[in-house]
């Protein structure tokens, strides 16, 4: 007999960017909520510090590849190999514990990619079942609850916003200033990217962000970075309705004979298997693990995996490969740029975000100038690996290099997907996620064009040599995951409706990036949090009150009403 | 099972001047120290030998006790549970890799007419490393190069690499990691490249260590962003 816990209203699996807002909204609405995370609940002030070896080389925060492996292959004919693909920290806070914290808003065009571009050969473009205006109030709520700094009006193509940012951005770093100079010389609109932190005198009255420069991939011991563990989770706990169960691995979502979710089965830190029943099950493990859990949760009603009547679960995965160009400056002539300073990015642009087909591709992504890193792992492609040449390179360029990065908006393809590996198992004995992924021609063209443009900006800023880092294959190095459980109107072609609610299982919701039908050209975290908040409002105000509603799409004038059950 | 959040903290630091060997034999210690001195040579500035890289590597290889410093740097975390099991298995592989690597260095040195790697001249040691790596000794970065690269995963674990790249990575780590791990003695590695790192890890936890002075102090958004006008207030 399995142990059984007292039933609750809502279980949330995964306490990162998707689970955090859901925990807050639903517990504040008065529902009893239990949140699970596979990993530990680390205490920032006690566990985190600026230890480069520990974070960048010994993976203190990242999933241990031997305990939680993933496998990757480029197509169905290749054998998948174990690889730490898209390593998002497996702990309470998830990706918000290590992220650099770019939190730009998406634009209107992101939601209507298929309407704008039609069918792109080899891709599976789709419109979202929501529009920017449905998300806008929630983007604002997140900016003011989570805490995001930015400079309203500086991005000339930005979509409508109902409220200013609660905080000014940080000053530029020296390499940031160079970026503005290079962009300005080429007529490119650069601006301080919205970031997950606040500065002095912010409207929320929070302490200003730490400036130790140990930032991207590090946990923040000062708790001044906006993260799920410093915002949504404390707010949820304050209601008295929310409980965190860390170190608890959810291995299965249970369904009854009618196919409604009844709760989850999890394994606690002592290896004991326990059942937790609930009226609503929310998955927010990240697009890879949410799809994996659904595929693991087979039942008589769902032999191909939970809510997978369409066969779409796991498909159309997108991963935003991070590409960049590095510029080397003259260490005798030029002032130091100090690429190890700052809170990772220090100035970006969405100038090339919207489609211009004269570039040879559709869509576009966000660029930003970013740290070249601390001493052990300083980013200098082609750096000599040993001998006098290495020592000389370190001395010459540690403070005289800069980098302009690019978040690739990869096109969804049905064949790019997550499924269960037939042989490799994790430390709990369950099949791991297998990623099949090959770049679309548009991905290759877009990234090549943009990295070449980044090199032009570096040259305009005074770089002596520019070094391109192009796309060849996906490594998951952006740690962004989207699309595996896509939202849509048509139950034949999508898994979730506009509320993140499974078409076939009305009390199952997926509230991470898995629902994104297209990848966005911006970092996904802000949109994940805003969309989770929006859908959680629906769960609290409509679904859990025994009602159902559908969303009107103003662009089409289409109104759809769901028949009550 | 103890959660990662509750791993025990074992106080104590590593003395980078120590010649006590926790993993290496005397011969292995001297061989790896010699190889490290070719990977980051001593010139007008200190190199791997002066930074105590050999102590860093010896402690790392000795087990899993020195994998993770405590956040404040006063000791080390006692790994537990599944994490410890996985780390121990990797450590055993790493020990085998190094034991074999030292033998390989001596074998190649022998082919070049030397008694051992450590007793060979610096030039011959470089030849051995060239043979071991299968490539010529790296040339200086050229500002005229048009070389192109492709994306890779961030983070640099030492999983699954052959001996020589593993050694190069570890020497680099021992030269530049926080001194709590036994290398970068007196922050000598940081001084070589001009990194004003924190005095100790504790200083990074509460804002004591700040790089605010390296940000641009005088700036005006409307100058940096042509066409942008700051809204009043």
Can you put this structure into words, describing what you see?
The complex is a heterodimer of chains A (565) and B (233). Chain A is of the alpha/beta class. Chain A contains 11 helices and 17 strands. Chain A has helices at residues 19-28, 44-47, 52-57, 113-117, 132-147, 174-185, 232-237, 287-296, 388-397, 441-460, 525-541, and strands at 3-13, 33-36, 70-73, 81-83, 190-191, 242-245, 249-255, 261-267, 273-283, 322-328, 345-349, 367-370, 401-407, 417-425, 431-436, 465-470, 508-510. In chain A, the strands form 3 sheets. In chain A, strands 1, 2, 6, 7, 8, 9 and 17 form a 7-stranded mixed beta sheet that branches. In chain A, strand 1 (3-13), helix 1 and strand 2 (33-36) form a beta-alpha-beta unit. Chain B is mostly helical and 233 residues long. Helices cover 40% and strands 4% of the residues of chain B. Chain B has helices spanning 26-39, 48-51, 53-61, 81-111, 122-133, 163-176, 188-193, 221-224; strands at 8-11, 75-78, 149-150. In chain B, strands 1-2 form a two-stranded antiparallel ribbon. Classes of the chains: A alpha/beta (565), B mainly alpha (233). The interface between A and B is large, with 108 and 91 residues. Strand 16 of chain A pairs parallel with strand 3 (149-150) of chain B.
Question: Keyphrases for this structure?
Answer:
heterodimer; A: 565 residues; six-stranded antiparallel sheet; globular; disordered C terminus; B: mainly alpha; 3 strands
Rg calc of chain A:
23 Å
Low-confidence stretches of chain B: none
The DSSP helix count of chain A reads 11
Strand order of the largest sheet of chain B: 1-2
N-to-C SSE series of chain B? EHHHEHHEHHH
Reported for the largest beta sheet of chain B, the result is: 2 strands, antiparallel
Shape of chain A: globular
Please report the number of helical segments of chain B: 8
Q: What value does the average pLDDT of chain B take?
A: 96
Helix content of chain A: 10-25%
Indicate the proportion of strand residues of chain B: under 5%
- Unreliable runs of chain A: 557-565
Q: What would you call the shape of chain B?
A: globular
Mean pLDDT of chain A: 96
Helical content of chain B stands at 40-55%
Q: What is the tally of beta strands of chain A?
A: 17
End-to-end Cα distance of chain B: 54 Å
């Amino acid at each position: 007999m399995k142990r059984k816990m007292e039933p609750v209203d809502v279980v949330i699996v995964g306490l990162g960017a998707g689970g955090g807002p859901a925990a807050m909204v639903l517990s504040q609405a008065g529902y009893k909520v239990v949140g699970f995370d596979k990993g530990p609940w680390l205490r920032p002030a006690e566990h985190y510090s600026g230890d480069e070896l520990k974070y960048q080389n010994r993976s203190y925060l990242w999933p241990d590849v031997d305990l939680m492996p993933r496998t990757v292959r480029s197509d169905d004919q290749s054998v998948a190999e174990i690889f730490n693909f898209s390593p998002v920290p497996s702990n309470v806070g998830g990706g918000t514990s290590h992220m650099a914290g770019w939190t730009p808003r998406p634009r209107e065009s992101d939601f209507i990619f298929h309407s704008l571009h039609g069918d792109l050969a080899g891709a599976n473009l789709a419109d979202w079942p929501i529009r920017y205006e449905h998300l806008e109030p929630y983007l604002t709520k997140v900016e003011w609850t989570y805490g995001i700094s930015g400079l309203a009006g500086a991005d000339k193509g930005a979509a409508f916003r109902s409220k200013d940012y609660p905080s000014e951005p940080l000053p530029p770093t020296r390499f940031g200033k160079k970026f503005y100079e290079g962009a300005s010389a080429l007529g490119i609109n650069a601006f301080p990217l919205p970031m997950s932190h606040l500065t002095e005198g912010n409207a929320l009255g929070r302490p200003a962000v730490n400036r130790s420069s140990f930032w991207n991939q590090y946990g923040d011991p000062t708790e001044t970075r906006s993260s799920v563990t410093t915002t949504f989770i404390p707010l949820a706990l304050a209601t008295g309705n929310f409980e965190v169960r860390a170190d608890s691995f959810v291995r299965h979502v249970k369904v009854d004979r009618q196919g409604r979710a009844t709760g989850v089965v999890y394994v606690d830190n002592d290896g004991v298997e326990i059942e937790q029943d609930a009226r609503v099950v929310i998955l927010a493990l990240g697009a890879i693990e949410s799809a994996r859990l659904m595929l693991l949760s087979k039942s008589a009603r769902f032999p191909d995996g939970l809510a997978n009547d369409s066969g779409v679960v796991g498909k159309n995965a997108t991963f935003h490969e991070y590409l960049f160009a590095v510029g080397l400056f003259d260490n005798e002539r030029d002032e130091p740029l100090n690429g190890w300073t700052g809170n990772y990015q220090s100035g970006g642009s969405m100038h090339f975000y919207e489609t211009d087909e004269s570039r040879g591709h559709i869509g576009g992504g966000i660029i930003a100038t970013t740290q070249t890193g601390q001493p052990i792992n300083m980013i200098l492609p082609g750096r000599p690996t040993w001998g006098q040449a290495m020592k000389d390179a370190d001395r010459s360029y540690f403070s005289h290099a800069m980098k302009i990065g690019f978040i690739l908006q990869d096109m969804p393809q049905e064949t790019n997907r997550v499924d269960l590996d037939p042989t490799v198992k994790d430390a709990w004995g369950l099949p791991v996620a297998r990623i099949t992924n090959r770049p679309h021609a548009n991905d290759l063209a877009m990234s090549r064009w943009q990295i070449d443009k980044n090199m032009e900006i570096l040259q305009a800023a005074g770089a002596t040599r520019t070094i391109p880092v192009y796309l060849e294959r996906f490594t998951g190095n952006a740690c962004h995951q989207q699309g595996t459980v896509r939202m849509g109107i048509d139950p034949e072609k999508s898994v979730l409706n506009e509320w993140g609610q499974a078409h076939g299982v009305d009390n199952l919701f997926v509230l991470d990036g898995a629902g994104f039908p297209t990848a966005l050209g911006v970092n996904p975290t802000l949109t994940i949090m805003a969309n989770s908040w929006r859908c959680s409002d629906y769960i609290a105000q409509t679904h859990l009150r025994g009602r159902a509603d559908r969303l009107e799409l103003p662009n089409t004038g289409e109104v759809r009403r769901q028949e009550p059950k | 099972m103890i959660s990662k959040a509750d791993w025990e903290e074992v106080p104590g630091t590593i003395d980078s001047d120590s010649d006590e060997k926790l993993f290496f034999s005397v011969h292995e210690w001297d061989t790896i120290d010699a190889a490290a001195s070719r990977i980051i040579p001593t010139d007008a500035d200190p190199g791997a030998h002066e930074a105590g890289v050999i102590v860093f590597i010896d402690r790392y290889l000795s087990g899993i006790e020195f994998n993770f410093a405590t956040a404040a740097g006063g000791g080390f975390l006692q790994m537990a549970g599944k994490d410890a099991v996985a780390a121990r298995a990797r450590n055993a592989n790493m020990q085998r890799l190094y034991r074999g690597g030292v033998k390989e260095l001596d074998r190649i040195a022998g082919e070049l007419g030397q008694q051992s790697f450590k007793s060979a001249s610096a030039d011959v040691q470089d030849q051995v490393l060239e043979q071991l790596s299968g490539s010529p000794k790296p040339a200086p970065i050229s500002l005229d190069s048009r070389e192109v690269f492709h994306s890779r995963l961030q983070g640099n674990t030492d999983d699954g690499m052959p001996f020589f790249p593993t050694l190069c990575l570890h020497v680099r780590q021992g030269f530049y990691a926080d001194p709590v791990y036994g290398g970068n003695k007196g922050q000598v590695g940081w001084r070589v490249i001009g990194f004003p790192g924190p005095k100790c890890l504790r200083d990074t936890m509460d804002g004591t260590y700040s790089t605010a002075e390296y940000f641009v102090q005088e700036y005006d958004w409307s100058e940096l962003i042509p066409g942008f006008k700051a809204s009043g207030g």
